[in-house]
Amino acid sequence: MNTTAFTIYDASAGSGKTYTLTKEYLKILFLASNDDAYRKILAITFTNKAVAEMKNRIVSSLYEFSIDTTSEKAMDLLKDVANDTNLSIATIKDKSKAIIKNIIHNYAAFDISTIDKFTHKVIRTFAQDLNLPPNFEVSLDTDVLLQEAIDLVISKAGEDQNLTQLLIEFSKERTDDDKNWDISAELLKVAQLITNENNSEEIKEMSEKSVTDFGIIKNKLQAAGAHLKQECSTIAQKILENIDKKGVSRKSFYSSYVTNHLEKVAAKRIARNDTIINYLNGTNAPYSKAVPQFDKDFIDANASEILISVQAINEKAEKIALYEAFLQNLNPLSLLNTIYQEFKKIQEEQNIVSISDFNTIIHNEIQNQPAPFIYERLGEKYRHYFIDEFQDTSVMQWQNLIPLIDNALAGEDVSGNKGTLMLVGDPKQAIYRWRGGKAEQFIDLAKDSASTNPFSNKDKKTERLKTNYRSYSEVIQFNNAFFKQLAHQFDNEDYKNLYEHLSHQETNAKTGGYVNLSFIEEPEDETLIEGFDNENDTVTLKDKLYLSKTLQTIQQCLANKFEYKDIVLLTRTKAPGVKLANFLTENKIPILSSETLLIQNAIEVKLIIALLRYLKNFKEEEAKIYFLYYIGRYLQSELDIHDFILATKDKNTAELEVYLKTIGIEISFTDCKKKSLYETVETLISVFLKDKVNTSYLQYFLDLVLEKDVKVQSSIADFLEYWDKIGFQKSIPSPEGTNAVRIMTIHKSKGLEFPVVIFPFAEEDFTKKIKDKLWIPLEDSTIDLPKALINNKKEVENYGNEAKTIFQTKNQEEILDTINVLYVALTRAEEQLFVISNKKLTKKGAFVTSNLSFYFLDFLEKNGVYEPTKFTYEYGTADRKSEIEIHKGIHESIGIVADKLKSSKINIAQREALMWGTIQQDAIAFGTILHEIMSFIHTKDEVELALNKAIELGLIRMSQREIFKETIQKIVNHSELNDFFAADGTIINEQTIIKKATKAIKPDRVVLKGNSAYLLDYKTGEKHHKHITQIEEYEFTLREMNYSVAKKMLIYIGESIEIVTL
After folding, report:
1. Structural contact between residues 742 and 567, judged by C-beta atoms closer than 8 angstroms
2. What is the 3-state secondary structure (H, E, C) of 603-625?
3. Closest CA to 298 of 253, 254, 258
4. In this predicted structure, which of 375-379, 597-601, 716-720 has the lowest mean pLDDT?
5. End-to-end CA distance of the chain, in Å?
6. Does the pLDDT at position 530 exceed 60?
7. pLDDT exceeds cutoff 60 at 891
8. What is the pLDDT of residue 648?
9. What is the DSSP secondary-structure string of 765-801?
10. Region 75-82: what's the mean pLDDT?
11. Closest CA to 116 of 145, 152, 140, 85
12. Between 901 and 475, where is the model more confident?
């Protein structure tokens, strides 16, 4: 069978990419001569869920192949594999048994992982070569680290004069623009450039620049701008002076357009003006008929010269505008390197590596290396590569993988088989540009041109998976027509081709289905009719119309025999999702959303947080009122809630504890403060929430507390700080099998499918969309920066041709990203699709083109079905076609554990505990533990402390204390050992000495007095000559360190103590 080295599968939504991936993976396994070919395959995908799905698909397929009763679905795959490999079904069945057995016994070598996990594996393997600590931890919370770095930079205000001045200027700029004077949030936006690989080249260029360097650049920009303004003013003044000198009226120029502009420029109000060029180059009449002939002759004679001057002013105006735009962003940018240095310092101090640095670390290492050393071992390990969801692979991730894959494609293994690469993706589903995933990368690779193939082996083919197996025919046909028409939104030919020619899908055997396009009629008055605590969650009359329409749609689906679990509501952002969740909950619709899964919204977690805040500060009134409210409502019944709070709110801690005891709640807040964080939370739960301890929210919260307590020994204050910054965002995993309507963002829905998709709030004002800043080349040798960072706005087109090109390219990318998100939303539907949009019209009745709703309205109009008075459009019939499955809940509740294990009843088993009581082990066990206790002792006065520590650590029991004490006292007070336990030297216990070119050594005890060293080693068991050799090796090493060994001794610890002087 001929195999192409590099195969690209262009897989539109629902086209069976997982099936294709599984089939191609299995083909490699079955064609291999041995049963462990999976060891040579690396499959990379985007999410942990996709990894689990792919592993499950491969293993379950192998299992189905191996049994006699292969299911019909698996048999179809089996026949496809047999057809492609020319192997008999019997052969594949036999091989399946052997392969699945091999995988089960070597599951760790079954390498299917996310790209982040693979990168982490590489970095972890080569940590020492990459100058990283071998035991580093991975931080997923990059923004928290950045915020910490920003806080440190701001805290240095007053110490560094330049830094202080910069922070003051930045704060003043914010207040002058009527923005929040707190610069922390704005600095975080700029600091995020550091961790976003889309800006890696630009950040690298300015990584060495200090605050002082940026101060110099700022002065140069201001000076250059002022100089250019003066030049423009001088040019304009000369033209005006010449006009006046010749006695020509300035009003003789048509409508005074030219002279008015020149007067503004002369007054240093400079802006580019292309309109007046048409009155100077002959396109438009330069003057009216009523103008005196003398003035006409002057204008005709001087128009070309004035035109040259105006064009020169326009060119200078472009630079002035660019400099001024850059100066707006220069202050926060000036702090970038300072923040970056603090960011790196925090990582080094905390021994962590941010996940955002993974790709950069490898990228920097493999630059200019023909055969990167970090891939040398991996290069021979893997021969076949699968990359799923390639459109989400960032540019840097792909560049990092190319050398590794190229090695496999260019070479052959011992059997003469070449390596292969299979990419699967869909550029129409590229919705992660903000983190480096670009549709253009896939589009370029999929082209036939050899120049777009980055590998030395140019054997490549692209295949399109044309059939949609997910959706019913009406949904497929609607999406085909809708997205083909959207192709005309693009000027970029690649993007246009993507939707005009590559978005069409063939239908499958599932005929029917239903698509409903409906519109709300936007009210003239958007008065607030309902409010929430958070001002961002206010509900307008327009929102209410969307919410009501969504509820009607859900009820319509239920009437058509769909269940809640069949329905998903997709939203562009989280805000509409919150409104939907609140509204549907009020209307008794069961829902599952990111909001309902947030642990901070669970009343039990709210209670624990309030109690922790109270423990941190007994004067925290808000927290106190909250937990008193909870007690009043749920844990007592004698008083009304309000009366209970009034009766308790003014009591101090001691009085409150006494009062709570009268209603059956025994708690000592003072004792809680003395415990570890986890013990404190456990105590609070056992007192206030003993009947709810097994709720998923509380269990997940306990996991968070334990993680913080174990990793960094967090105090209550530390944990609350973590909670307020990031912990509150944590959510429990979505439970499977719940009969509830799901609410999620379109980004979260990627890769999923649902019987019914409802897309409410299907509008977006493109003019209000937050846009990324742009990097524009400066092209000024006097300014020591290659690019300027400016705000993305229409005026950028006036900053020069290159700026115009960059702006227009970015604009096309934004349109592509918007349509891609829409594509993901509309292709999640299996059977029914509902879009609820807004009929956005101008005052003249035309469609508002700068809104997402225009795409739907324009589609209807172009297809000749739009009617001004019609608000609902249907395709297909709404009756359910699929088989009805009655929902069966799969949740089993875990019973409450009634009896609590008392800590006083717990005995800690010591090491060697099983040996104690046997004659042959008593001496060794005793000696081993004594050896460890001796490592705690520096001087003879520390015996009691060492014994206490041994009991705390569980090395010995209290009943054994006197036995050990007696023996230790004999050692430390022994006349021959005075030099070792006196307080007049530097005592070093159990410290490693790293030797050059040989293994490290660790003497039990070294006492240093000036240049003299005293060596003591403890031994258990029988005497042996190697003990003497070992202590002599210690002596030799100390001599190499310029110490003279004054005394060296061995102590044999067993049933008796024996001291040997050497």
Report:
1. yes
2. HHHHHHHHHHHHHHCCCCHHHHH
3. 253
4. 375-379
5. 76
6. no
7. no
8. 92
9. BGGG-----EEEE---TTSS-SEEEE--SGGGGGS-H
10. 93
11. 140
12. 475
Tokens coding 192: 């995020």
Alpha-carbon distance 1053 to 1051, whole Å? 6
Which region among 166-175, 668-677, 936-945 has the lowest average model confidence (pLDDT)? 166-175
DSSP state letters, 51-115: HHHHHHHHHHHHHHHHSSS--HHHHHHHHHHHHHHT--HHHHHHHHHHHHHHHHHTGGG--EEEH
- Bridge partners, 1017 (sequence order): 1050
Residue 98 and residue 109 in contact, taking contact as beta carbons nearer than 8 Å:
no
Sheet holding 591-593, edge to edge: 591-593, 741-745, 567-571, 754-759, 829-838, 514-520, 872-876
Is the alpha carbon torsion for 661, 663, 667, 670 positive or negative?
negative
In whole angstroms, what is the distance from residue 978 CA to residue 966 CA?
Answer: 17
SS3 content of the chain, % helix, strand, coil (to 5): 55, 15, 30
Q: How many CA atoms lie within 13 A of 21 on its CB side?
A: 29
Q: Give me the amino acid identity at 8.
A: I
Q: Is the pTM of this model over 0.90?
A: no
Q: Is residue 268 pLDDT above 80, yes or no?
A: yes
Decide: 497 and 818 in contact? Cβ < 8 Å: no
Closest residue by Cα to residue 1008 from 989, 995, 994: 989
DSSP 728-751: GG-BPPPPTT--SEEEEEHHHHTT
Q: For residue 213, what is the DSSP state?
A: H
Dump pLDDT digits (tens) for 80-125.
999 999 999 999 999 999 999 999 999 988 989 998 888 888 888 7
750 against 996, higher pLDDT = 750
Say if residues 602 and 735 touch (Cβ distance below 8 Å).
no
Question: Mean pLDDT across the stretch 841-858?
Answer: 92
Asked if residues 723 and 609 have their Cβ atoms less than 8 Å apart, the reply is: yes
Residue written as token pair 């009406």: 474
Is pLDDT above 70 for 424? yes
pLDDT at 678 over 80: yes
Which amino acid is located at 148 in the chain?
E
Calculate mean pLDDT across residues 362-369: 75
What is the bridge-based pairing of β-strands 774-777 and 539-540?
unpaired
Amino acid at 703: D
Comparing CA positions, the residue from 788, 813, 781 lying closest to residue 803 is: 788
Write out pLDDT tens, residues 701-755: 999 999 888 877 788 998 998 888 778 888 887 776 789 999 999 998 998 999 9
Eight-state DSSP code of residue 727:
G
Contact partners, residue 65, CB within 8 Å, separation at least 6:
74, 78, 92, 93, 96
Q: Where are the alpha helices (DSSP H) in 917-1008?
A: 919-934, 943-952, 961-972, 978-981
Q: Which of 595, 572, 587 is nearest to 838 (CA)?
A: 572
CA-based nearest residue to 286, from 256, 242, 254, 248: 254
